[in-house]
């Protein structure tokens, strides 16, 4: 099968270009700048289930970042002891960054909601890629990041990847002995 005629985006971790991906996201410096100017984050699709990625990200953002964090989930009343809102329009503030944990088919609608409330950035989590959502957000002037984790990127830029077990600085296959 030939890949001739397919436009693909090179991903640094991918062995081959990903077919069908034509949108090119911001580089590391641009992502750093986005996170630096962000003051508030709304997590759309936030969950009170500790097994969900959105819960892990929310826990990290609340404990290890300077952001004001808001939760959007129409089926929850509180998450991590904070109020959960039914939609972005119900938030008491306009979020700078909308971090999305939703199904692929929901992403264009969430992008439009982010535009409608005046957010500055649409951020789709790891595994989320929707060029229609990106086009909606970019046409309205929003910055867009797709298929990246806010928690990982924040930790990466602020030297905290070791907090999640990454980049411990130890290069060894042996388990470290704890000194008493």
- What would CATH call the architecture of the domain at 47-161? 3-Layer(aba) Sandwich
Residue fraction in strands: 15-25%
First-residue to last-residue Cα separation: 60 Å
Helix vs. strand class? alpha/beta
DSSP summary: helix tally: 5
**Cα radius of gyration in angstroms:** 18 Å
Q: Please give the share of residues in helix.
A: 25-40%
Overall geometric form: globular
Quickly name the level 1 CATH class of the domain at 47-161. Alpha Beta
Briefly note the CATH topology name of the domain at 47-161.
Rossmann fold
Number of strands: 9
Report the CATH superfamily of the domain at 47-161: NAD(P)-binding Rossmann-like Domain
Report on the biggest sheet.
7 strands, mixed
Q: Please state how the strands of the largest beta sheet are arranged side by side.
A: 5-6-4-3-7-8-9
Poorly predicted regions: 1-16, 163-173
Name some characteristics of this structure:
180 residues, two-stranded antiparallel sheet, 7-stranded mixed β-sheet, 5 helices, 9 strands, Rossmann fold, disordered N terminus, alpha/beta
Question: Care to give the gist of this entry?
Answer:
The chain is an alpha/beta fold. The protein has helices at residues 28-37, 53-64, 107-117, 131-139, 150-157; strands at 8-9, 18-19, 40-44, 68-72, 78-79, 82-85, 97-100, 121-124, 143-145. The protein has a domain at 47-161: 3-Layer(aba) Sandwich (Rossmann fold).
């Amino acid at each position: 099968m030939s890949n001739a005629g397919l436009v693909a985006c090179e991903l640094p971790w991918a062995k081959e270009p990903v077919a069908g991906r034509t949108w090119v996201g911001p580089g590391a410096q641009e992502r750093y700048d986005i996170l630096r100017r962000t003051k508030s984050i709304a997590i759309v699709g936030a969950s009170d289930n500790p097994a969900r990625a959105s819960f892990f990200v929310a826990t990290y953002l609340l404990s290890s970042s300077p952001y004001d964090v808001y939760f959007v989930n129409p089926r929850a009343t509180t998450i991590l002891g904070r109020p959960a809102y039914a939609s972005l329009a119900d938030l008491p503030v306009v979020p700078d960054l909308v971090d999305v944990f939703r199904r692929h088919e929901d992403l264009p609608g969430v992008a439009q909601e982010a535009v409608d409330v005046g957010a500055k950035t649409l951020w789709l989590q790891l595994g989320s890629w929707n060029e229609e959502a990106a086009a909606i957000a970019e046409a309205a002037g929003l910055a867009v990041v797709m298929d990246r984790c806010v928690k990982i990127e924040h930790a990466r830029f602020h030297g905290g990847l070791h907090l999640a077990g990454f980049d411990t600085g130890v290069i060894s296959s042996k388990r470290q002995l704890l000194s008493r």
